[in-house]
Amino acid sequence: MNLLDQYLSEEEEEEVKSKAALERGIGIRDSQPRLKPLPDQILDKYHISPNIEKYSGEDMNTIARGWTSFAFVEMRPSHRQRLQIDSLVHTVGLQLRSEIGLEFQPLHISELGSPLPLHVSLGPNFSFQTSQELNAFAQMLQVETWQKMNAPFEVGFEPILQIYDNVDRNALFLALDVSQSVKNSHIRRLWTAVQESLDFSRRSDECAASRCAWTFERSHMSIARAFLKPPSIKAAGGHTSAERTLDAQYRRTIEQLNMLLANRPVDRSVLDSLRFQCSGIKLTKQRSNLWIPFGSDTQ
C-alpha cells in the first residue's frame, strides 16, 4: 500500500502538469504577455484613415463628399521612434510656444494614448464624381505603381524642420521634410503614378486646381499640429485691404517660424533613427485603406 501511495492518479498527475506549465508561463523572465502583432489587413480595414483636413478645404468636401481618395506612404513608428518624436516635439514645441503662443500636439499618439501611424502624402485629397471614377483611379494606380516601383526604398529626412499650414488656414503643422534625394527619385515616381492615374480616371475639372497645387517637392511628414485661435483667413480670401493685410501677417508668421527652425537643425542621430523602409503605398477607398505593394513585393 505504501508503494501505491507514491503514484498519482491520472487526475492528480494532470493537475500537477497544468500547475507546472502555468508557473513556467508566468515566470520572472516572461512576466509580460506577448501578443502577436495584428496583420496589416486588419489594421487597414479598421484603422482610421490619415487626417486629411490639411489637404482638403471646406469647398472641396462639399463637392463630392462620398467619393474621395488619398494616396500616401505610411510610417508606423516603433517604440524607440515614438520616444524620439516625443522628445523632438516637446523640445521644439516649447521654443515655438514662446514665439507664437501655440501648443503643438504630437500626431503619432491619440488623445487616449494609443499609437497612431504617420504619413507622407502623395497629393491632396482627391474628389470623384462617381464610384466608377474612384474604382478606375484605384485600379490604374496599382498598375502604375507596379510598373514604376520594383523595389522597396528607405525614407529619410532633412535636418531642418518646417512649418506648413492647411487649406483652411486654421492649423499649423510641424513637419520633417523628406530628404531631397528621396523626393527627386522615389517620391517623384510615385507622384507621377498618381497623376497619370488621375488622368486615366477622367475626373471632372472641378478639383483640377487642387491637383496642380501639390507637387512632390513639398513631400514631408507632419509630426505635430497646433490649431489657430481664432482661425486665420481662408485661402480663397484676400480681396479686401484688411484681408490682404491679414494674409501678409499670416505668411510672415510662417516665414519667421521657419527661419527660427532653420537655426535649430535636428541631430543626425535622431534623423537616422527615424528612417523607415517603404515597400508600398496606401490609398483610402470607401472608408478603408487599400495596400498597393511595389512590383517585387509579394506580401
Automatic annotation (TrEMBL):
Q: What is this protein called?
A: LADA_0F02014g1_1
**Annotated GO MF terms:** nuclease activity
Going by the entry's taxonomy, the superkingdom of the source organism is recorded as Eukaryota
- Fetch the InterPro entries from UniProt: Usb1 (IPR027521)
One GO term under biological process is: U6 snRNA 3'-end processing
